[in-house]
Design a protein that fits this description.
The chain has 668 residues and is of the alpha+beta class. The protein contains 25 helices and 26 strands. 36% of the residues lie in helices and 21% in strands. It has a five-stranded mixed sheet. A five-stranded antiparallel sheet has the order 16-15-14-17-18, with helices on one face. Strands 5-4-7-8 form a four-stranded antiparallel sheet. Helix 1 (3-24) packs antiparallel against helix 2 (32-48), helix 12 (433-444) packs across helix 13 and helix 16 crosses helix 17 (522-532). Bound molecules: 2-(butylsulfanyl)adenosine. Residues 80-82, 113, 115-116, 120, 136, 173, 225-226, 288, 307, 310 line the site of 2-(butylsulfanyl)adenosine.
């Protein structure tokens, strides 16, 4: 090899390695500027010596001339579809049926993986080089989209290692990550262009571009999920190992591909992924369960166009159309009026929905929504249902505009709008029974003063009967007052009074949180307490001093300052302290903390703690508790049924601490 060729190949290998680390492993290895420098060196060498350009060079992903039309490609093996199931019962019936057919015990091995909501693709490699790529089409014949596929950095142009068959078809799904989708739609909006409807449409449209430069700007991604045709070599004898092999050849294989035994594990995977779904950076519309062994797959065979050895569990649809019957304005703790849509009941996201939020008045204008309209309601996971758009073609002639209130619907006070906010607010403050009820509910809640037995209905009664006119009144409640209320026996009244009494011993962070200062959550309350440690000091600080506190920005600093500047609020705090609320001064160790600065992640379930208790204890020792495992994580605290986080932590070599070992943190 000439010295020149050696340099060119060396640069290519290095760039390919960085691409793989960045786009497949999600672990950037060098700064962008360094990557660009290497890329430019390769580009200029190739320019000077065009005879050295090869089709799998990283410089050759973009730049092909636009096409007139796509060619047709016949798949070497047809691309099939999957049968669907929709419930835990159907899943268990599938597992049993397959086990019966194979005359296996119920310990049959399956692999479960996300059902990606993108575009199916088939890639053909000859001697490790990408030869062509085709869409699914009608399953037999698809379109040749090779030029576009080459722009996707998570797809290797040449395979790694040497153990791959000389002819290899790889199947997978091309997606547009949600983050890219949102960014492109923001750009489209700024330019007055039409946005994409959803990431799947965006991915599909991007693959159908005749000019691959357009596709390159769409930042697509691909997850490989199967080997199709192969010849001239061997592949593993089961699906899970085939996925591992694909990973080794340089493909992105999803991190949530798991081997499972029997119905129970298939079901717990279903629950796990359903919960995880909103946090994923790509859309999935279900779970694919596949029999692991290829020999068993062959035994089971196919019915018409779908395999008997695989099934797609489909999540309940997240969008449905219904009609808008009315709009009510609810008054929140800080007086903000939230418009709530009253809907013709509709089944969406697995439940019947008859109310959905419209957020604020700006949103009503943005959606151009009217009473009587047909509207699309979205409900994902446990998130509050919302109205996302109007079906304009179905607007009835009788549709009427929504009246925006000028008076609070609860107390009749003026409604005010604050310039820089989308919200309109009731100006009645705690004279407004709605705001008072919400403030009390917040004050007594578990993470605030934690007064047991103080439910929503009780708060409503106490406010309506004027027994509570401010939070301080809680500490004047007597058994004799309480027994006069509906459904309040003497025993429960005594219990409540004793719960009120024991709530008096609290902590400074809880007390600060319970005050209900706008945008001061638990974390900010904790930071405030850690920084200044004394309510008398905190209540006298100026705005700049609040800005010094961790996580406090200008808006929050202003809110806190405004809160403490109000004489009424100062009186409330004095009243509460006079009623006997006390806390231990935050100990010095708590601020320094034996786990100060450590990043911990909690997963699974624990025998001796709820997850929240464990979190509070770790925070108390100065740790930072994060929701996801990354290279920065110091410890993963793993309980029972720890799933993908545990695998990831082990892969990354992060220290894992199990429940029995937790004492080593707490006994110090
Ligand atoms: S396996 C023989 N695995 O679902 C079955 N398909 O109806 C081969 N899909 O359009 C498919 N995620 O593109 C498989 N993890 C996954 C998948 C998946 C999404 C799509 C596939 C096809 C449809 C099958």
């Amino acid at each position: 090899m000439t010295e020149l060729l050696e340099r060119v190949t060396g640069l290519r290998d290095e760039l390919n390695k960085h691409n793989h680390r960045y786009y497949v492993l999600n672990e950037p290895s060098i700064p962008d500027a360094e990557y660009d420098r290497l890329f430019q060196s390769l580009l200029s060498l190739e320019k000077k010596h065009p005879e050295l350009v090869s089709s799998d060079s990283p410089t050759q992903r973009v730049g092909a001339a636009p096409l007139e039309a796509f060619n047709q490609v016949t798949h070497k093996i047809p691309m099939l579809s999957l049968d669907n199931l929709f419930s835990a019962d159907e899943l268990s019936a599938f597992v049993t049926k397959v086990a019966d057919k194979l005359s296996e015990s119920s310990d049959l091995a399956f692999v479960a993986e996300p059902k990606f909501d993108g575009v199916a693709i088939s890639l053909f490699y000859r001697d490790g080089k990408l030869e062509y790529a085709a869409t699914r089409g009608d399953g037999e014949t698809g379109e040749d989209v090779t030029q576009n596929i080459r722009t996707i950095y998570s797809i290797p142009l040449s395979l790694s290692g040497s153990s791959y068959p000389s002819e290899l078809e790889v199947r997978g799904e091309v997606l547009m990550p949600k983050a890219v989708f949102h960014r492109l739609n923001e750009q489209a909006q700024a330019l007055g262009e039409k946005p994409f409807v959803n990431p799947r449409n965006a991915a599909s449209g991007s693959l159908r571009q005749l000019d691959s430069k357009t596709t390159a700007n769409r930042r697509l991604h691909m997850f490989a999920y199967a080997i199709g045709y192969y010849d001239g070599g061997r592949v593993p004898d089961n699906h899970y190992d085939a996925m591992v092999a694909l990973r080794g050849w340089g493909f992105a294989v999803n991190e949530h591909v798991e081997k499972l035994i029997g119905t129970a594990e298939c079901e717990s995977y279903r629950l796990m992924l359903t919960k995880l779904r909103p946090d994923l950076d790509y859309d999935i519309d279900g779970i694919v369960y596949k029999v692991n062994s290829f020999a068993q797959q062959d035994k089971l065979g196919f019915v018409s166009r779908a395999p008997r050895w695989a099934m797609a569990y489909k999540f309940p649809a997240e969008e449905a159309v219904t009609s808008l019957l009315g709009v009510e304005f609810q008054v929140g703790r800080t007086g903000a009026l939230t418009p709530v849509a009253r809907l013709e009941p509709v089944f969406v996201g697995g439940v019947t929905v008859s109310n959905a939020t419209l957020h604020n008045v700006d949103e009503i204008n943005r959606l151009d929504i009217r009473l009587g309209d047909s509207v699309v309601v979205h409900r994902a996971g446990d998130v509050i249902p919302k109205v996302v758009r109007v079906v304009a073609e179905r607007r009835p002639k009788t549709a009427t505009t929504i009246a925006i209130p000028t008076k609070c619907p609860i107390c009749g006070s003026e409604v005010v709008s604050v310039d820089e906010e989308a919200a309109i607010r009731c100006s009645g403050a705690l004279l407004c029974p709605a705001q008072l009820k919400e403030s009390i509910k917040h004050f007594v809640s578990r993470k605030a003063m934690d007064i047991d037995g103080f439910g929503e209905k009780l708060v409503a009664q106490l406010v309506d009967k004027k027994l509570l006119n401010c939070v301080t009144d809680i500490y004047d409640l007597r058994v004799a007052d309480l027994v006069l209320l509906d459904r309040m026996a003497e025993k429960s009244a005594e219990k409540l009074v004793s719960a009120i009494e024991s709530s008096k011993k609290t902590t400074l962070p809880r007390f600060l949180f319970s005050l209900g200062i706008r945008e001061v959550g638990e974390a900010t309350a904790r930071s405030l307490s850690a920084a200044y440690g004394d309510i008398a000091v905190i209540s006298q600080l100026d705005e700049e001093e609040f800005l010094l506190v961790e996580d406090v920005g200008p808006i929050v600093a202003k809110n806190i300052h405004q809160f403490f500047s109000s004489t009424k609020n100062q009186e409330m705090i004095e009243g509460l302290l006079a009623a006997g609320i006390v806390w231990d001064k935050p100990a010095a160790v708590e601020t320094a903390g034996t786990l100060a600065g450590r990043i911990m992640v909690i997963t699974g379930t624990f025998g001796s703690y709820t997850r929240d208790e464990l979190k509070q204890r770790l925070l108390g020792l100065g740790a930072k508790v994060s929701g996801s495992v990354s290279k920065k994580t110091d410890y993963l605290i793993a309980g029972d049924k720890a799933g993908s986080k545990l695998t990831k932590a082990q892969d990354l070599g992060i220290r894992v601490v199990f429940e029995p070992e937790l004492d080593r943190f707490f006994d110090q």
